[in-house]
Here is the input.
Amino acid sequence: MEFNDKQIQIIETAETLFAERGFDGTSVRDIADVAGINVAMISYYFGSKEKLMEALFELRVGSVKSRVETLIKDESLTPLEKINMLIDEHIDRVMQKQCFHKIMLGVHVTNKNPAILKAANNVKIRAAEVVSEMIKDGQKKGIFKKKIDVVLMINTMVGTVSQSMISQEYYREFNKQQDMPDEEFQVLLKRRLSIHIKILFKAILTNES
Amino acid sequence: MEFNDKQIQIIETAETLFAERGFDGTSVRDIADVAGINVAMISYYFGSKEKLMEALFELRVGSVKSRVETLIKDESLTPLEKINMLIDEHIDRVMQKQCFHKIMLGVHVTNKNPAILKAANNVKIRAAEVVSEMIKDGQKKGIFKKKIDVVLMINTMVGTVSQSMISQEYYREFNKQQDMPDEEFQVLLKRRLSIHIKILFKAILTNES
Amino acid sequence: MEFNDKQIQIIETAETLFAERGFDGTSVRDIADVAGINVAMISYYFGSKEKLMEALFELRVGSVKSRVETLIKDESLTPLEKINMLIDEHIDRVMQKQCFHKIMLGVHVTNKNPAILKAANNVKIRAAEVVSEMIKDGQKKGIFKKKIDVVLMINTMVGTVSQSMISQEYYREFNKQQDMPDEEFQVLLKRRLSIHIKILFKAILTNES
Amino acid sequence: MEFNDKQIQIIETAETLFAERGFDGTSVRDIADVAGINVAMISYYFGSKEKLMEALFELRVGSVKSRVETLIKDESLTPLEKINMLIDEHIDRVMQKQCFHKIMLGVHVTNKNPAILKAANNVKIRAAEVVSEMIKDGQKKGIFKKKIDVVLMINTMVGTVSQSMISQEYYREFNKQQDMPDEEFQVLLKRRLSIHIKILFKAILTNES
DNA sequence: CATGAATGAGTCTTCATTCAT
DNA sequence: AATGAATGAAGACTCATTCAT
Here is the structure.
């Protein structure tokens, strides 16, 4: 489905507010006011607040799915390189669309928005299958360990990045980096996360230790 | 602050519902209905819905703070043993009070409930300081590496456990364990998490690899 | 089901307004304003606008059902006397609660308020069965004709009374009775209707002509 | 006023929907959707929803008025024949345009659409005058009784037909004719109504009993 | 001539809270 | 100490209509 400029503007406004205040904590009037449009337009363009949420999901997730599929087929990369790319791409994706990933976290916590929850789970399951195949490939080639809990591994990656995102203020505080410009801090955090998770994954995947 | 039986009953009902439907998605009437009490009692006992949330936080967090403090002072344990106990206790705490930790996740995501957010951050900062001291102790003794990013390390622990909790259905599905009795599954997951995170921490902390 | 004073006040206000403006043409705010109560009270007492309508139906119809049942069992009356009582009671009922019967007319025209439509039809079907039994009794006794279309007969009674009620202004106009006090006119109209319908029924039921 | 094809298509769609759901229960968007046209066209062609209703009335009533006038002047018919023709034509008219007559019933019940109500009353008053003249003619010729309440008589005809139309499902049910093809049933009902009302009128008008 | 986009007013309902008892 | 009744504010959504194109 394609969205026009006005629709995207509304979706992105909603994205920010949903992230700040939660889905139920954001009224359609709030969204309309911030977006500078009429309240009725939300129903007009999306049908309902719920459908607006689904549109947001579609807009953000749509492009991701195919990426994972192409990555696995790339024969020029070793299994470990693929995993490392997966890590970096995940970090980039989350840190670039922090609002969206905050919302997704909320969706997974509560049982509301069942349509989205289901769609998100489908994405996640497919991703896990892909990773699983990568790992099996690495195991065949003797690079990876025999016993690996794929889901816990993914949970560590996803959990660490999410946790770092939602508590970045506290990260700055603890490391006395409150005065660092935001952009610089984001770059720093992403690099640290990348190194950190790669170390973790190496420990899980390889026989080196 | 002490809570009487009726108050605790209300708080625990609210805990379940807040976890299932989110704070804004739960009405005080929902809580009153499920708890089998009068709607007015919530305002009567707690003053407001917001204050009820704060009471929930106080009830659940109160006991934790002191535990961390006593752990660090225990001289009969090595730094690594302390860290490992921290891991197991965290896993137990989260898995035993899943509802509460789901709610806390929501609190950290949105900027609502600022009073709680602040209080929760204080708890977390203190915990990080304590862990930091443990690590410094280990570094002095030559057991731990020199360069350790404490916050990222904690984020990995907290993030992995949270992520595993909120997506446990999906864990069962992927590992074909849908028919396992819930209690058995909880035990299994906790053990796996414990081993998993300890491996990760060893990789971060020690020079072995 | 019993209604308290406030509920009855709301129901009767709604009755007037539904009759004047139709169900969809009346907003709950209209009702609340005229009844001098808060808008929220309608939901509070009845659950919804629809349920308020059902309450109105229950209040008005509840007492009628039993009356028809007792009438048929009265052995001191001849079949014709029973029919005549039915006519007079129907006229009285409609003319005394004109608003309600206007609303019922609307309910039968549109397919909205399906719950009420069904309930109303049940009442009507039962009434027709009762009348049918009365007539069969009269036929056995040789007083009534053999071939009688009960439904058309009832339609004539109900239709004539309804039509006379909704066009009474026009009746006054045509007969130059605009200045007659309303109460006097009601009495007059009821008497005329009674005589008129009894003549019609005699023509349908008996062999005299 | 003349209507073009598109206007007539809109009017007839509105007619069906108004009959099914009532005037207020039908939105202009409903009409536009069913008619397969743009919403704005209704305002464009008729000015407003209200005016569309008036157009519907004009389209349906326009042709009727003259018919009544010509009937009375026809000297080749006896007064009773004229009355009988009036009955049959009324039955045909109502049963052929049931939707429209359902709507008219609603218009007479509520005080909405005052313009239409007034116009409809004018038609009805003129009709009553015509009938009145027919009766006077019959009285002069000694065929009809001296004392006849013309309005009640018309109310019986109109009321019986209306009532039979709006409750025809129930007629079928009571007479176990649910499986009869609709067209066949319409013919049957019209014939029964014709005979039924003529019997009634004979009882009112003539001295035979 | 016809329409897609847009809107302000209005719809019903639910909310957390208060208050007299 | 506890509660049933009540309410103003706000919730999401639909309405008939307008207007630029």
Summary: DSSP finds ten helices and no strands in chain D. The two ends of chain D are 49 Å apart (CA to CA). Chain D touches chain C through 49 residues (CB under 8 Å). Residues 27-29, 39-40, 42-43, 48-49 of chain D lie near DNA strand F (CB under 10 Å from a C1').
